[in-house]
Amino acid sequence: MESRGAAERMSSPDQDPSHTALLSNIPQILCILVFVVVVCICIFDFKTVQLYFNLMIQWIRINPYQAIIAIILLYIASAIFTLPTTFTHIMLGFTYSQVFQSQVKGFIFTVPIVLVGCLLGAALAFLLSRHLFKNFVKKQIENSGEWINRNFRAIDELLVAQGITIVALIRLTFAPFGITSYVLGVTSIPLVDFAIGTLAYIFNAAMQVFIGCSLFGMQQ
């Protein structure tokens, strides 16, 4: 009887480390599946995505103020699914310049919307990475060898000490916006420092919005 009870306890799923690990990784697996599905749709059905994007631009022309929330949500989704935003910046600059019939007004109106959307999207991608993937990534790094582990710790400590400066420098480059948010999420940089550093993206975004506004001026 005792041996049978011991065998039952050993075969119980609750005691199986691999079963427990699988259950704990379900949120990560679901997020990865959703991510892969959305990215595949964007890649293999690009014409449909482009059609909906063009329809949205037309809707923005008709409802420029009501569209602000939709634009911010679009930027949040773009950051989460690591979709490029350069074309969106340019098109919004062009569209709002058309709406106001002024390059200056279009630029002034568009840049804050772009910055808010990108900042919220970056913060959400950062938090998803931190709470869903950080422990997994750290375990992989720890198992990758002493050299990688040591260098990751050094970079991690540097980000904690000078996080705002490093994030700001990253945002001034053309590094993929969503991907860098996920990468920084697995480090120990505080969310506040990450958000403050991300504000430097205003220069990058403003330049791309300005291109859109300039295209409107050339059309005139």
From TrEMBL:
Pfam families: VTT_dom. It is a multi-pass membrane protein. It is found in: Cell membrane. GO terms for cellular component: plasma membrane. Residues 84-212 form the VTT domain. Keywords: Cell membrane, Membrane, Transmembrane, Transmembrane helix. The chain crosses the membrane at residues 26-46, 67-87, 107-129, 158-179, 199-218. InterPro entries: TMEM64, VTT_dom. This is VTT domain-containing protein. It comes from Strombidium rassoulzadegani.
